[in-house]
Write a structure and sequence with these properties.
Elements: H1 2-5, E1 14-18, H2 51-63, E2 68-72, H3 82-90, E3 97-102, H4 107-117, E4 121-125, H5 131-138, H6 144-157, E5 160-167, H7 176-186, E6 189-194, H8 212-220, E7 225-227, E8 238-242, E9 248-252, E10 265-268, E11 273-275, E12 284-285, H9 287-292, H10 297-308, H11 314-317, H12 320-325, H13 331-334
Parallel strand pairs: 1-2, 1-10, 2-3, 3-4, 4-5, 5-6, 6-9
Antiparallel strand pairs: 7-8, 8-9, 10-11, 11-12
Helix pairs in contact: 2-3, 2-10, 3-4, 4-6
This protein binds S-adenosylmethionine and iron/sulfur cluster (SF4) (2 copies).
S-adenosylmethionine binds near residues 75, 101, 102, 195 and 335.
Length: about 325
């Protein structure tokens, strides 16, 4: 086993698997409704990887060192019978942790099945407690109570829960404190995500980013936070906890403090393309390979060769110009 891992010159620890590019929300920073409208062409079913194909790819990745999987989308809970995929992935030797990122709407219906299948944790996205702000952001008029019920359902089912909040200037920075208060009271980790220039449709520019430094300053007026050491190499969140509690607050600082040099994450889109960076323009087709070969070796060879050629450091080098000029894949397609 180690022999296979030795083929890589940079560590590869986690894999994000998108299982659909569709979503029941139209978050303005991810799938703006004017672009992702009724005429938008989502992937046809024939192009989407089957659960068996996903399982075979995840198995090949596990031989190269991947121990953590995250299921994402679009909205992954819209993929029919996604719990059975979790069950398959759970059985792959070497996979120690399976998480899923969701908007939470379908958790009351599915949380128990997901846990029974072997899911360990969910990250639930919620950008505001205030209904008017949240309804506007998600583009579908869904109130925060719907997502809060999903979070409750996940906790009741025994899942680990973190809440993700994308913060945009002039949109929801007024919610930084109310969200912190709410999730501190619940004992749930809240992670603030800097608004990123993923894709080419969300109108991003630097002026719309609220940096970790700015958020931390706001929080410091209301809470006492103390730093927490990283759990492992390549941990993405900068973590703190509320003093005298075990409740954490984290920041994903991919704009203001990039972390490309320790990036150990690979991504597969729902149609089987392998991306070595969230801001990539080009993916490598693994679907053709997985549909052609029954053996694992060709998959392992291709994945290791692509990973070894990887030179990605987009966030380290980001400028206002590069963010606008470069053709990039959309967040709803690759899953974050
Ligand atoms: N639909 C699921 C959800 O919203 O959790 C999973 C897919 S979504 C693309 C994954 C994560 O990406 C979510 O936490 C979402 O808030 C985040 N995200 C989407 N667009 C973003 C952007 N432009 N900047 C920062 N985070 C973004
Ligand atoms: Fe859908 Fe998630 Fe994107 Fe919102 S962030 S539009 S819930 S995929
Ligand atoms: Fe990894 Fe690309 Fe993000 Fe850098 S910009 S941390 S290489 S995904």
């Amino acid at each position: 086993m180690n022999g296979i891992k030795d083929r890589l010159n940079r560590p590869l620890q986690d894999l994000r698997i998108s299982v659909t590019d569709k979503c029941n929300f139209r978050c303005q920073y991810c799938m703006p409704a004017d672009i992702f409208g009724p005429d938008f062409k989502f992937l046809p079913k024939t192009e989407i990887l089957s659960f068996e194909e996903i399982e075979r790819l995840a198995s090949a990745f596990s031989k190269l060192g991947v121990t953590k999987l995250r299921i994402t989308g679009g909205e992954p809970l819209l993929r029919k019978d996604v719990a059975s995929l979790i069950g398959r992935l759970k059985k792959i030797p070497g996979i120690k942790d399976i998480g899923l990122t969701t908007n939470g709407v379908l958790l009351p219906k599915l949380a128990k099945d997901l846990v029974d299948a072997g899911l360990h944790r969910v990250n639930v996205s919620l950008d505001a407690i205030d209904d008017d702000i949240f309804k506007k952001i998600n583009g579908r008029g869904v109130g925060s109570d719907v997502v809060l019920k999903g979070i409750e359902a996940a906790l009741d089912a025994g899942l680990g829960v973190k809440v993700n909040m994308v913060v945009q200037k002039g949109v929801n920075e007024s919610e930084v404190i109310p969200m912190a208060r709410h999730f501190k009271n619940m004992g749930v980790t809240l992670r603030y995500i800097e608004f990123m220039d993923v894709g080419n449709s969300n109108g991003w520019d630097f002026s719309k980013v609220v940096t970790k430094k700015e958020m931390f300053a706001m929080l410091s007026d209301h809470f006492e936070l103390e730093p927490v050491d990283p759990n492992y190499f390549g941990e993405v969140a900068k973590r703190y906890k509320h003093k005298h509690t075990e409740t954490e607050v984290g920041f994903i600082t991919s704009v203001s403090e990039s972390f490309c040099s320790s990036c150990t994450r690979a991504r597969i889109s729902a149609d089987g393309k392998f991306y070595t960076c969230l801001f990539a323009s080009k993916g490598y087709d693994l679907r053709e390979l997985v549909r052609t070969y029954k053996e694992e070796e060709p998959l392992i060879n291709e994945i290791s060769s692509i990973w070894n050629q990887r030179r990605d450091r987009y966030s380290d080098e980001r400028t206002e110009e590069s963010a606008k000029a470069k053709e990039k894949i959309e967040m709803s397609y690759i899953g974050g």
